[in-house]
Here is the input.
Amino acid sequence: MDALLTSVAAVGLAEIGDKTQLLALLLVARFLAPWSILWGILVATLINHGVSAWLGTALADMLDPQTLTITVGFAFLAIGIWLLKPDDDEALDADNVRYGVFMTAFVLFFVAEIGDKTQVATVLLGARFDDVLAVTLGTTLGMVAANAPVLWVGHRFCRDLPLKTIHGGASLLFIAIGLWTLCIETGWLTG
Here is the structure.
């Protein structure tokens, strides 16, 4: 249960104000089909994060436990710091769409997640918890929870959110997980 809840919280908070919310807003403004877009987000995230969580567990199997714990701890700290830097991706353009709404959302979200903070976090969560299913479900639920409101409430909702505060909270969560991993799980603090 820890893997699921930590994954939901970590990715849900990290996604608020991320480029994928901009993408969700762009798609709903263009197509006015929130359910098709939501299904595209869901399927793309399940596949992308499933592979990422599996990769994390595979890496966990290759490293000795102490090395893995130290690596994951420092990586969580790095993501916490990375979250403080706002996304500066180029504008996303939905004007040249050839396929249906679902397929467009699926492809754009899948590609947008490659190398994104949440994909890296999913790899780390997979390595940390060694539970592909719980991490995949948790990160997917976090992604959907962060993007679904954008689809129905749109621009007004995003404009009123305190994005710096939310990014700061997500950053602190990742840093806390990293510190916990380094200080408690390695035994540095207790041993």
Remarks:
- The chain is about 80% helix and 0% strand.
